[in-house]
What we know:
The structure is a homodimer. By secondary structure, chain A is an alpha+beta fold. In chain A, the strands form 2 sheets. Chain A has a 6-stranded mixed beta sheet with strand order 7-9-6-10-8-11, sandwiched between helices. Chain A has a 4-stranded mixed beta sheet with strand order 2-5-3-4. The termini of chain A are far apart. In chain A, helix 3 links the parallel strand 3 (about 75-85) and strand 4 (about 110-120). Chain A folds into 2 domains: about 5-135, CATH 3.30.1330.10; about 140-305, Alpha-Beta Complex (Phosphoribosyl-aminoimidazole Synthetase, Chain A, domain 2), CATH 3.90.650.10. Helices cover about 35% and strands about 25% of the residues of chain A. The interface between A and B is large, with 70 and 70 residues. Strand 1 (about 25-30) of chain A pairs antiparallel with strand 2 of chain B, so a sheet runs across the interface. Chains A, B: Belongs to the thiamine-monophosphate kinase family. Chains A, B: It comes from Simplicispira suum.
Amino acid sequence: MGEFDLIARHFKRPVRRAALGVGDDCALLAPRPGMQLAVSSDMLVEGRHFFAGVDPDALGHKALAVNLSDLAACGAEPLAFTLALALPSADDAWLAAFARGLYGLADAHGCELVGGDTTRGPLNICITVFGEVPTGQALLRSGAQAGDDLYVSGTLGDARLALEALQGRVALPPALLAAARQRLERPTPRVALGQRLRGVASSAIDLSDGLLGDVGHVLRASGAGVRIQAKDASEWIAENAYGISASSLFDQDFLLQCVLSGGDDYELAFTAPAAARAKVAEAALQANTAVRCIGQIESAPGLRVVDATGRELTLPFLSFDHFA
Amino acid sequence: MGEFDLIARHFKRPVRRAALGVGDDCALLAPRPGMQLAVSSDMLVEGRHFFAGVDPDALGHKALAVNLSDLAACGAEPLAFTLALALPSADDAWLAAFARGLYGLADAHGCELVGGDTTRGPLNICITVFGEVPTGQALLRSGAQAGDDLYVSGTLGDARLALEALQGRVALPPALLAAARQRLERPTPRVALGQRLRGVASSAIDLSDGLLGDVGHVLRASGAGVRIQAKDASEWIAENAYGISASSLFDQDFLLQCVLSGGDDYELAFTAPAAARAKVAEAALQANTAVRCIGQIESAPGLRVVDATGRELTLPFLSFDHFA
């Protein structure tokens, strides 16, 4: 089966929102009047962002999820995406499963495939996603102000816990592994929350490389610092959701590392003025997504994590760096 | 040097046309009123689309050129692009040269880098490019009509001639090799011509996989066939530009194969009604790009190549298929 047949068979669909979809030299998008187009590209490499042999259905989901998470961090509504795919071989069953995972998430968000490229090569998935956001209302990294609260959505550290287990560095009970693995392989982009936070949050970012590293980007862009209260950080992990206490299995330092710098969370971190607490709670409720206040923005640059006694922790770990 | 430093050092620049560039979760684009956004993604893989060890300056040029060529085929004006890059190592000199080649072409077209991703992995370059086109005026593959002329811009087959030489299958005199290699490694996207053909051409496509294969896409999209006059096809190759007659070096079948199905030309093939011949000539003149009429669209489906005597040629070669 040739390249073009492959694309047509698994990925070509009529479009409803784009002016022109897959099948010509370009796709055509027409943002509605008063809207800007938010654009983000992420590249996923086998062995780096996912294990060789990972379930292609989960991979299809995750490849789009990490991009939708960027739209969420801007408060944008998903519109369309392009998919560029390098494959070591043209495996029909693999492509069918990948497309199933991809379209499952895409359809849930009304996000259409409008174009892309397929070629032979070491497995590599590059998605560019497009969303609409009212002009001037996108959430940026640069708006955090001293006195603002720092929030995170959902739970943190689960994906890293799964990664540590799958790589054989820790042992997890089967139920906990299954739940954590779901978070690693099928992250939930916080698209509804991001849109609800427009006009409420002063800054936002999505957590891909770990909380501390990603919040560091917000601090640099905003010219500010932060004090994070870590007295209950090990409870941020989704242990309650699993019905199993991860904190009874692991020492606090390990859990703290998963939570603060684990990476692959695809939750939102955002700031908002103290006066906006009720609006944040309302946005979380409307989006059906839990949020948690974990600290405050300060004018002094730097990232301070303090324990229950107010003592600053010295942290040996940093966020994940692909070239570290 | 860390991932984020690398990006900042070589690729981060202020934007002039986009609402927000590199450095946040998303870039923000705002097409002008009355404009649609044309979008195209291409992925280039080492060993497949370029040789290992190729000059990174040329690679930076080509990675963007193949995308700009898609915009040209739609008649769109380049606006911005994202760059996703997987690199086996973070080599500063390589990145500097790659960025030089990339920005050289980008700046010539006023096309801004607005975002992307960098990761470790087998060398892979995925660019998504954005252009503006007046609503409803994009050139499509689907508009060819029986009786239309079929044109190509520039010269065909040079890139394939260089590829054959670089892979040791043919020998070329140094001056011819240098000229052909320039066409392979630094193709010229026909951006100005594409824009001039709006309202003139009835269909267009850019030639990446070879003339016959790519024109085949136009025919399928348009529900038509074509008769191509190959009596002088071996003269379509840029021999005159080199001051050397390729036709004196090679047999006609080999040259015909380079021209008709060589690939990597990044010229435009387009159709226009016979009544529009003066307008086509005017567009070519304005864009300072040679065009050549090579055949006519017919209502009978299929692709017919005839020689000087009008006899239909039986062609053993097809267009390049990445999964063939």
